[in-house]
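Let us practice reading a record.
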Amino acid sequence: MYWAEFLTIAIAHLLAVASPGPDFAVVLRQCVFAGTRAGLWTSFGVGTAILLHVAYCLLGVAFLLSQSAALFNTMKLVAAAYLFYLGAQSIRNSLRFEGSADKTSETPILQPRRAFVLGFLTNGLNPKATLFFLALFTVVIDTSTPTLIQFFYGLYLAAATFIWFALLSLVLGIEKIRLFILRMGVWLERAMGTILLLLALQIAFNV
């Protein structure tokens, strides 16, 4: 009975999650600079944050955000500030490592909790994700759809998000691929930092 609705949700989510954005940039950076394990934990954080979006949609908080310009703008600024901080940190790290010995064979140890929190905050604070889930739960999903079914939709979205980024982490974490990318050294760090800064500005002024 709900297969058509589910298929619409699945396709919309696939297109959204495959589009380059803050989640992609952060997972990519984690995999390249800290290895597959860090990428997987970051991916788990991103996937878990999907449940946060689903929860406030089911509770009606998403509608409140859409109706309150001040509240939504505050969320935008917090998200932009967080991404700006990550971008600035990447650029600062590139300046610190410039001229140092070759470190392409080294993999920094990153605590799973830190990687998880990074992924969770990156997705959870993203106002574009808020708008996406608001559209799903107000336009795509019928109001007559039982809450339990909507909850299972949410579980699928969280699992699918994790699987997507986990597969990305496994590919990018392959030693040959990771070392190939790392040969760009500080320039890759600067590029990722610049991308995060641009995403922060886009969220602050264009969402």
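A brief commentary: The mean pLDDT is 82.
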